[in-house]
Design goal:
The structure holds two protein chains of two kinds.
Chain A (H helix, E strand, L loop, with lengths): L1 E5 L2 E2 L2 E2 L2 H11 L3 E6 L12 E4 L7 H15 L3 E5 L4 H12 L3 E5 L1 E3 L2 E6 L4 E7 L4 E5 L15 E4 L9 E8 L12 E5 L9 H10 L3 E4 L1 H5 L20 E5 L5 H7 L4 E6 L12 E4 L2 H13 L1
Parallel strand pairs in A: 1-4, 1-6, 4-5, 5-12, 6-11, 7-11, 14-15, 14-16, 16-17, 17-18
Antiparallel strand pairs in A: 2-3, 8-9, 9-10
Chain B lengths: L1 E5 L2 E3 L21 E3 L1 H17 L4 E8 L4 H10 L3 E6 L8 H12 L6 E5 L10 H9 L2 E12 L2 E7 L4 E8 L2 E5 L11 H7 L4 E5 L10 E7 L8 E4 L2 H15 L7
Parallel strand pairs in B: 1-4, 1-6, 4-5, 5-11, 6-10, 7-10
Antiparallel strand pairs in B: 2-3, 7-8, 8-9
Helix pairs in contact in B: 2-5, 3-4
The chains are: A alpha/beta, B alpha/beta.
């Protein structure tokens, strides 16, 4: 079995997700071959072929064309990408060009196929592609490399086709500055959409204060303007690892979990017993946050 | 200018989901359905584009699914779309993104849409595929995960949201497909007068059977809830008692409540 791994680079760096792709190939016991849009300095450390093309920052048409050429040469069984802003953008383009299956956000390899989350991570499905090859995107953090990377890649350079140039990359922009540095907080109490309205955020803030911690928030709460962006925890916010993380009215979407699952101890308060936050919570309190949090704060402040 | 918005109706994610008897999808009865959250941003962006450009813009909202999806279409009409297309398909839950995109493309081909908005992903399948597949099938430019959108003439400038606080500025010309990320705008609530006005708007029903269906490329073997954290504790009961129990756990298992 052979997998073609599509490595991700950004701003002249190879992203760590490359080694998750390699861990996934190892999990499948498949031969890894890699594609990378960069020069040889960025080639990942492993024993296998790496196709290189210095195609610059992401250009979907160009990357698609280059990868399709590698697919024609290597005839892989699986084409694997990270389920990231790069992977989910590129994967369906490859699947459509090849007219093959794509499975999104694989979290495990199980008997009968691949495991995918669905219904906002409240359920899982086992799905089997019936085409070959198949395109897979893997969830960040689901396949972790064992040990540090090793090996010497054999490099193959791809000729650059004339870019189709239908989209123009005009540079990077940073999202907001960090007014609050959550990365060093020992206790974080985070507020989710479950609090219902902006006025109720104060209840969660009071608990954070009682515990001597910082206020964190999910994205919808930030998007709605209830809490300022520098408090956002997750893929597009900050990554935190406090001793205690309290999730108040938070469902536990992967994009949020990616920012907090390294916390030592996680308490979740949710009225829904099945909320996916239960997957990472050391304690799940099934209750209405608006009633429970003030009761808890009063006891701690005592 | 002709704009198309694709919306999906999904169950309320706070529902209790039960897997159906053959283990391939959920039991749909007793569930409340609503417009996919990401698609509300798509509808809003289409309506804002119409408002920006004036009257010479026609916005079609399209949804593929069973009879119940007309509710979501009516909401989109009340938000300001001009007309609705319902690709009627009682078996849509069994269809994979490739087939859904294929059916939408079969309808949209030849309609010469200048701009298509979709959500980044649906909350039930979460595949983040239909928008991009549709673009590929129609041979259109596609830009995903958009959190800023500006149109000037036929040229578009957007921000794509990447990971870790970074955005990419991208420019392109119409025609194009744009997939919308949370926070792109603030979706409006339909007002009562607009809900009334929406009743007069056209709602075209097209049976899926009239459109070309692609072969399935995947098979769902089974569906099941995820495992909970090993050793994770679930506390249920009366509020004061719960607070006492949690406090005891925090004192025992963490150091955050120790003084000094
Ligand atoms: C590319 C991408 C990046 C993203 N980045 C981030 C990110 O960095 N950070 C982030 O947080 N999200 C991010 N998201 C969004 C993420 O997918 C979820 O939509 C979001 O985390 C959900 O926030 P929430 O849990 O507050 O809201 P919801 O999912 O709406 O959950 C609300 C929860 O509150 C519970 N609830 C409701 N009422 C009560 C009550 N009275 N008492 C107790 N519980 C109650 C409900 O049962 C539910 O579980 C991203 C999404 C994408 C696609
Ligand atoms: N049945 C459908 N009808 C109309 N649009 C859909 C349908 N399914 C998916 N879409 C669109 O495609 C986007 C991505 O969906 P998905 O690939 O299922 O994650 C959604 O946000 C919708 O805009």
């Amino acid at each position: 079995m052979k997998t073609l791994l599509i490595c991700e680079t950004r701003q002249g760096k190879l992203l760590e997700s490359t080694y998750e792709l390699l861990a996934f190939a190892e999990r499948l016991a498949a031969e890894p071959v890699a594609f990378l849009s960069a020069g040889e300095a960025l080639a990942p450390d492993f024993d296998g072929r790496v196709y290189l093309a210095e195609a610059g920052e992401y250009d979907p048409d160009l990357h698609k064309q280059l990868i399709l050429e590698v697919v024609a040469r290597e005839k892989p069984d699986y084409i694997v990408l990270a389920h990231s802003s790069y992977g989910w953008d590129l994967a369906p383009r490859l699947a459509a060009a090849l007219r093959v299956a794509q499975l999104s956000e694989v979290v495990d390899v199980v008997a009968g196929g691949f495991e995918l989350p669905c219904f906002n991570a409240k359920l899982r499905r086992t799905v089997k592609p019936t085409s070959s090859p198949a395109v897979l995107t893997i969830q960040a953090g689901a396949f972790n490399p064992k040990g540090s990377p090793q090996g010497t890649p054999r490099l193959e350079r791809l000729a650059l086709p004339v870019p189709a140039g239908r989209t123009h990359f005009a540079g990077y922009e940073a999202v907001g500055k960090k007014a609050v540095d959550l990365a060093r907080a020992e206790v974080i109490v985070s507020v989710g959409r479950g609090v219902g309205k902006q006025d109720n955020v104060a209840l969660i803030e009071a608990l954070a204060r009682a515990l001597g911690g910082e206020l964190g928030a999910t994205r919808p709460v930030v998007d709605a303007g209830w809490v300022e962006h520098s408090h956002q925890v997750g893929t597009t916010g900050q990554v935190v690892a406090p001793r205690l993380y309290v999730a108040c009215g938070i469902s536990g979407a992967i994009h949020h979990l990616a920012g907090m699952k390294k916390s030592d101890f996680v308490v979740a308060i949710n009225k829904d017993r099945d909320a996916p936050i239960g997957e990472v919570a050391d304690v799940l309190v099934v209750a209405d946050v608006l009633q429970f949090v003030p009761a808890l704060t009063a006891r701690i402040a005592r | 200018m002709k704009i198309l918005v694709c919306i999906k109706q999904v169950p309320d994610m706070e529902s209790r989901f039960k897997v159906n008897r053959d283990g391939t999808w959920i039991e749909e009865q007793d569930l409340a359905f609503r417009m996919n959250e990401y698609d509300e941003f798509a509808v809003e962006q289409a309506v804002q584009t119409k408002e920006q450009l004036g009257t010479d813009v026609d916005v079609t909202v399209l949804s593929l699914g069973p009879g119940r999806v007309t509710e979501a279409l009516k909401k989109a009409l009340a938000m300001g779309c001009d007309r609705a297309v319902h690709i009627q398909d009682e078996a849509s839950a069994q269809k994979e993104p490739w087939q859904i995109a294929g059916l939408i493309a079969a309808y949209a081909r030849g309609q010469a849409y200048d701009l298509v908005f979709t959500g980044l992903q649906s909350q039930d399948r979460g595949s983040a595929q239909v928008g991009v597949l549709l673009a590929e099938l129609l041979g259109m430019v596609c830009v995903t995960t958009v959190i800023d959108f500006a149109l000037k003439g036929t040229s578009v400038s957007v921000s794509r949201e990447l990971e870790g606080g970074l955005k990419a500025a991208v420019q392109f010309d119409l025609p194009a497909v744009v997939t919308c990320q949370l926070g792109l705008n603030t979706p409006r609530y339909p007002t009562l007068p607009n809900i009334m006005k929406a009743r007069q708007k056209e709602l075209l029903v097209v049976p899926a059977a009239d459109l070309l269906l692609e072969q399935a490329l995947t098979a769902t073997e089974k569906m099941y809830p995820p495992a909970r954290k090993e050793g994770g504790l679930v506390l249920e009961g009366e509020i004061d008692d719960l607070a006492d129990r949690l406090l005891a756990v925090l004192k025992e298992k963490t150091t955050v409540l120790r003084q000094g």
